[in-house]
Write a structure and sequence with these properties.
Elements (H helix, E strand, L loop, with lengths): L1 E8 L5 H10 L1 H6 L4 E5 L8 E7 L2 H8 L2 H7 L2 H5 L1 E2 L3 E4 L7 H6 L13
Antiparallel strand pairs: 1-3, 1-4, 1-5, 2-3
Length: about 120
């Protein structure tokens, strides 16, 4: 397994659309093998956002990079509005994931249903 880290600068007016763009691209990314995608924002103002993705292997990640599906996502208006730093790849050589704990703690804000008018 590999993990890719990339810092990004998301203009404030694009923040919500960027998070929606990540969520909207989930299905196609999962069809191409992505295991996880996390958007981590600084706890204090002024830092950069970090995007972490997990992939089964370098080969699966490289195949994703070469697909027209990825090209279509990166050609989007939202993707173009964000400033991306280079991707750094890491081999996962140890550690663990507490899957039951992760399932119990969903960090993604859920839209609140609008009340009928």
């Amino acid at each position: 397994m590999i993990v890719c880290l990339r810092t990004v600068v998301v203009p404030p007016k694009w923040h919500d659309r960027y998070l929606a763009w990540i969520a909207d691209g989930r299905a196609i990314r999962q069809q191409h093998g992505i295991l996880a995608e996390l958007v981590c924002e600084p706890a204090e103002p002024g830092g950069e956002t970090v995007v972490i993705t997990g992939w089964p292997s370098h080969q699966v990640f490289d195949a994703w990079i070469a697909t027209p599906h990825r090209d279509a996502l990166t050609a989007s208006e939202v993707h173009q509005a964000v400033n991306y730093r280079p991707i750094t790849r890491y081999e996962v050589t140890g550690g663990y994931l507490n899957l039951p704990g992760l399932t119990a703690c969903n960090p993604s804000p859920q839209p609140t249903p609008e009340e009928p008018s």
